[in-house]
Amino acid sequence: MKIRILQHYDAESYRQLRLAGLQTNPEAFGSTYEQEAQFTLETMSNRIMPSKDKFVLGAFTEDGSSLTGIVTFVRESGVKTSHKGNVYGMYVAPSARGRGIGRRLLVELIERARECEGLEQIGLAVVSDNASAKKLYRSLGFETYGVERNALKYNDQYYDEDFMALRLR
Predict the structure, then answer these.
(1) Core-most of 83, 143, 150, 165, by most CB within 10 Å?
(2) Secondary structure (3-state) at 140
(3) What letter would DSSP give residue 99?
(4) C-alpha–C-alpha distance, residues 56 and 58, integer Å
C-alpha cells in the first residue's frame, strides 16, 4: 500500500471512492450521495488540491492502480483558532478494511500535521455508534470531549456524534 497526498489528476478516483463511501455508509458523513453525485470533476479536483493548510491523503494498492482509502486534513483559518486542525471524510473501502489502511492514513495525517507550525490540536467528529472508528482514534491518542445528540439526520433517523481531539503539544 502507498499513501500520498492526492493531486488534481486523482480527482476521478477520489470522486468514485467518495461516492462509494456516501452510498455504503451514509450515516457517517455530513454530505449525501445525491448532493455530491452532482459535483463536477472540476469541483472534486478543487476539493483535493493541497495547500499550506489542507491536504487529502489517499491510500493506493501496491501497484498504485486503485484508491482504497481517503482522509482530509484542514487547518482552522481564524486568528484565534489557527492552532487547531480537523480530520474530515475518513473512509476505507469495505474490500480493503481490516488491513490497517485507516491506521496508516491517520498516522500519516498526524505526522504531516505535526509539521504545521503552531498547530497544537487535531479534532474530529465520529458517529457515536461507530465503535471500530472510535477504537482506532483512541488507539492513536484521540480523546472524546463531548457528544452532540441528533447531530445528523438521514432518512428520518438521527445519529449522535462524538467529538474527539488529539493534543500535539
Answers:
(1) 165
(2) coil
(3) S
(4) 7
CA distance 42 to 11: 8
For the question of whether the overall pTM of this predicted structure is more than 0.90, the answer is yes
Is 125 within the bounds of a domain? no
Q: 122: pLDDT confidence band, cut at 50, 70 and 90?
A: very high
DSSP H stretches of helix in the chain:
11-24, 33-36, 41-48, 101-114, 131-139
53-68 confidence digits (pLDDT tens): 999 999 999 887 899 9
pLDDT of 11 higher than 90: yes
Residue 143: per-residue pLDDT: 98
DSSP string for 46-92: HHH--BTTEEEEEEE-TTS--EEEEEEEEE--STTTTTEEEEEEEEE
Please count the residues of the chain. Answer: 169
Instruction: Give the range of the structural domain holding residue 98, as residue numbers without chain letter.
Output: 2-119
Q: Pull the grid cell for residue 98.
A: 481490516
When divided into structural domains, the chain yields a total of 1
